[in-house]
Amino acid sequence: MPRLTLHRLSMAHPGDVSALATLIADGIVPAASIRAVIGKTEGNGGLNDFTRGFFSQSLMHLLARETGEAAEELAGRIPCVLSGGTEGVLSPHYIVFTEEEGAGEAGLAIGTAFGPPVAPGDVGNDAQIARVADAVRAAVADAGIADLADVALVQVKSPAGGPGLLLHSVAGGTMGAALALGDVPAEEARGPALLERTDLFSPRVSASAGVEVTRDEVVVLGTARGWAPGLRMAVRPMADALDLRAVQAAFRAAGLEADPDVPEAQRPRIRAILAKAEPDRSLSIRGQRHTMLGDTDIDAQRHLRGAVGAIIAAVAGDGRVFVSGGAAHQGPPGGGLVAVIAAEEA
Amino acid sequence: MPRLTLHRLSMAHPGDVSALATLIADGIVPAASIRAVIGKTEGNGGLNDFTRGFFSQSLMHLLARETGEAAEELAGRIPCVLSGGTEGVLSPHYIVFTEEEGAGEAGLAIGTAFGPPVAPGDVGNDAQIARVADAVRAAVADAGIADLADVALVQVKSPAGGPGLLLHSVAGGTMGAALALGDVPAEEARGPALLERTDLFSPRVSASAGVEVTRDEVVVLGTARGWAPGLRMAVRPMADALDLRAVQAAFRAAGLEADPDVPEAQRPRIRAILAKAEPDRSLSIRGQRHTMLGDTDIDAQRHLRGAVGAIIAAVAGDGRVFVSGGAAHQGPPGGGLVAVIAAEEA
Amino acid sequence: MPRLTLHRLSMAHPGDVSALATLIADGIVPAASIRAVIGKTEGNGGLNDFTRGFFSQSLMHLLARETGEAAEELAGRIPCVLSGGTEGVLSPHYIVFTEEEGAGEAGLAIGTAFGPPVAPGDVGNDAQIARVADAVRAAVADAGIADLADVALVQVKSPAGGPGLLLHSVAGGTMGAALALGDVPAEEARGPALLERTDLFSPRVSASAGVEVTRDEVVVLGTARGWAPGLRMAVRPMADALDLRAVQAAFRAAGLEADPDVPEAQRPRIRAILAKAEPDRSLSIRGQRHTMLGDTDIDAQRHLRGAVGAIIAAVAGDGRVFVSGGAAHQGPPGGGLVAVIAAEEA
Amino acid sequence: MPRLTLHRLSMAHPGDVSALATLIADGIVPAASIRAVIGKTEGNGGLNDFTRGFFSQSLMHLLARETGEAAEELAGRIPCVLSGGTEGVLSPHYIVFTEEEGAGEAGLAIGTAFGPPVAPGDVGNDAQIARVADAVRAAVADAGIADLADVALVQVKSPAGGPGLLLHSVAGGTMGAALALGDVPAEEARGPALLERTDLFSPRVSASAGVEVTRDEVVVLGTARGWAPGLRMAVRPMADALDLRAVQAAFRAAGLEADPDVPEAQRPRIRAILAKAEPDRSLSIRGQRHTMLGDTDIDAQRHLRGAVGAIIAAVAGDGRVFVSGGAAHQGPPGGGLVAVIAAEEA
What we know:
The structure is a homotetramer.
Chain A: E1 2-10, H1 18-25, E2 34-41, H2 51-67, H3 71-75, E3 80-84, E4 93-101, E5 106-117, H4 126-143, E6 151-159, H5 166-181, E7 205-210, E8 215-225, E9 231-238, H6 244-253, E10 270-277, E11 284-285, E12 288-289, H7 300-316, E13 322-324, E14 336-343
Parallel strand pairs in A: 2-3, 6-7, 10-13
Antiparallel strand pairs in A: 1-4, 2-4, 5-8, 6-8, 9-14, 10-14, 11-12
Function (chains A, B, C, D): Cyclic amide hydrolase of unknown substrate specificity. Catalyzes the hydrolytic ring-opening of a cyclic amide. Does not act on cyanuric acid nor barbituric acid.
Keywords (chains A, B, C, D): Hydrolase, Magnesium, Metal-binding
Family (chains A, B, C, D): Belongs to the cyclic amide hydrolase (CyAH) family.
């Protein structure tokens, strides 16, 4: 029987995988047990953010050395979903998901899948939606999740597609996952709806895109029989970028106090915080004008990550928050979602 | 007997003073009653932020037209303290402080003062400290505050001093005010201590510097006899950039609920939110590395304002937060302070 | 008989019009003689560049004080075309065009025109093209230019139109001017061609757009009978961003040596340098990849202005070059144009 | 007898070494013959530029695979000097220096050396100057250059040293090389002179610093007996950032025409263009104010590289120019230097 374990590790720079190397050397993490990595690197999060590629290369070289498998093969079976941009109080880190032997009735499960190689520019369309939906179904099956209602979160990373296509690719990956989960009906989940039909969204899909991947990569987390218990995961939609209540609710649903923040003694139980959010396209938040979308100097998503990430970090008491912009169709428009995974009390 | 009134107004761009023009035209704000303006414009907050000068010019031209007084004279008696940078969820706005007829035993008072013209580069030294201390004493007297313990907050704006001197000027203005308040002993409040002696600070001084002012400008807020009641002001130190508890405490001390945020019905009572904060020079916050101080693309203070401003805005439920970086000697090192002014319940 | 005179003036910051104030005070420039101002301010050149509005306001207040005319009226008859962004070696400056009494057969003439107020978003379409074409025809007539072949350059400034519309507005203004000049046939100069039909362009239109204008503003320069001689103007297309030969050719055609640069003794004869250029949309220049269009940290037009402006400044021996990005339909695709106005040898 | 050969290769992104891989696979470049790599990657060139580390890692992994030597050992004997930042028209590329069998009397020679590991922060002082001077002497001996007058250029890369130390490290590396070459007298080449004594400089040292190196790395190029002829190298000081004449002079001294640019037929003979330059600290160039040093949005060195790089690229007719900022003590103050290596006519 499998047991999912999460290790949240810091990095000194985007090429630094020494914390994981130490865990492997110390026998705490068997290299072969690693199923996925989700992380936050300190680039700009845009088209010319190469910190993600640098980290992926460093990670795969480490695992190649430890497992004897070729780096290219490892990159083809272990999703490495990275979001660039640690604006403000955010701290560069990565979460290593391992599958080892465990025992129990039911628990948090992981499943992964890779789509086929993507031709340049073949994103933001029906083809990407279908491709990602297939990959999500494969990942759900891989996790052994019997009921789609038991899926907590789907994390998707798609190829960037080229200049001007980044947000379309994110939207296409999202819609594909939403389709597979049944959160958006099949007749609506079509190319022309991307970035337009803001009423169509899933509150449990987190998607991004980057130049460093050439195939759609999917990680599914949810409850499945046969997996060991011990981890609690909660996801909550954020109504807007100031939705402090939703953030607290996610922590509480994951079994932690949040009044207003997680008490210091409980903070070591936090295993992962994953969030998505979006600059409100109406150009205002609760009636007050924001300036994120008209700034020529700082990218709108960098503004957004810095703001929403800080609110979540303030509740967590910890800057290691995976928060990614470009949240079209992921949670309510102008808002997003926040997920927390915590170890149950000993 | 005087009554202090605050109007918090939005701007569509840094040259937009139409909201104030309307209040004057409607007879709600007599132009002659304006004592000070504190605002947040949408520039970069740095040496080449000209949104502050643009707003000041627009404001003084409006008041010149309404009062018949020359714009230059108005600029010499009405402090206009602006902070550039509305990163993330922050919203451009300005707070107009007026003094009109009122009645009551004691209440929130305002006092202002201007220092003499400053020679280029004459900041960040003993001369600036002495100059600002004198101006603060004059402003305290102007407000009629009898006891220095009754000073809630001193807001200082000093000339930028030139390339490389901006943060020294902020520190010098802070130290001058801290000296006048007795928060730092006279023998310690010296030029060489600036930016070095992080143990020296006042939890009730908010200072900034900019190219658009040529003299030190001071606004003092505090309780004084003879001023009408009706406003409640509270200031709290922030221990670090994640100090959500301090933010809530300031709102509560100003008479508002904050559990976790100010209820919608109480939000109209918020008159002003003024904050200072600083990227932690240890390069980490609560043990986690931050990347604000090593980013070549985004200025550290822009990172900081976006993060701390978002936490405060999330509690206020409103992006109109005056938050300014460069908080050396203003609140604890790596932290800062947050002030809230609210109308008492009707 | 009229005489066109140009004064190229420096500014210490975007609110500084003191150099012009001095010329007026000294009787060198009669305030009433000013027909147009073209300048380069030190903002970011994007949607949130407020240095242009700040300069315009400062200029119109100065002229209002000197002429007794209202600032709003002056702004409605004196085009003030500003381009933000003095990247690299570029130097903030403005060129004042005056019309005074002169004598001669024929010489460089100026004509100006303003279009009607523009509804928000009404740019980048057939309506803007027609509007600007009408304004250009009016400005040509105003200058007394008899033959369209004698038009040297049309400078257009249009309203920005809102987020995402800036480049469309620039393209629409350009196409309107190209239509009026006969450089693009009427049946091709249509909304759908904007930013798409890169084969359609005029080598003598320079257009920009900004939030600080609410009407299309046009300045036409060319040769007309009845204007005094003394100035020589030349315009040359740039084939790409490295077209050093075109830059030298423009200086030479304006009567200056350029081997490789303008000799120091001739530099005072330079009256204005106006240029437009564009990041090559093929993502490469002469077969080598450039990175301007995929940079999340620096706007592509800022990259471009810094590069092309430096090449022109190196030939001029002087950083006061008006160079503006967003050159769609202005000169060859991936290139642009450069214009030089110089005083004839004494 | 050795022959120095240079290959100038493009990269599609900072992890792309495929062009070199192809040359190795095709037998054109024996992997074991590589002595040094100098390149330009598309990061921001600052403290948080990780494109350099990414490229180095990719290069060393490629060479490890091809030679069987460990990547760490290769990195300890092959200097890989990278400058981040391809602003404007600059194109990402790298120059591979190989040493193979040749024949001839005398020719362009290469020598390399590495200093000892550097303790954090141990830069910008006497220790670094001495360390780098030793490494330069070792590299000169390695090249077999008999007379210091025959050294054309010394390229130094030093550890960044930490926040605030970057420019001090560049200055220290420069001064060490200038000391070894005899271009600055020993009694002047001291820590306190760094960044202060602008009169002390060498016109043939190019230095940089970065977080991706932990030891001083040195490459020396110059004429030595026993090396094969065929390459011509010229270095010229630039008096300021607009020194177009110096740029042309360097190309001409390397045997190419430059009137005003290198003719297309001669461009394939260009093997490398290496330049250093610096924003003028007087805040003006030839009497006109520049804004590079007061811009909060774009780093001054990015401004500078975009401008000077464009002027050189316009003469070369090619964007593959290695231009690096932070040129203190490298060429005249406010200026810099430009070096060209070209193949002799067949």
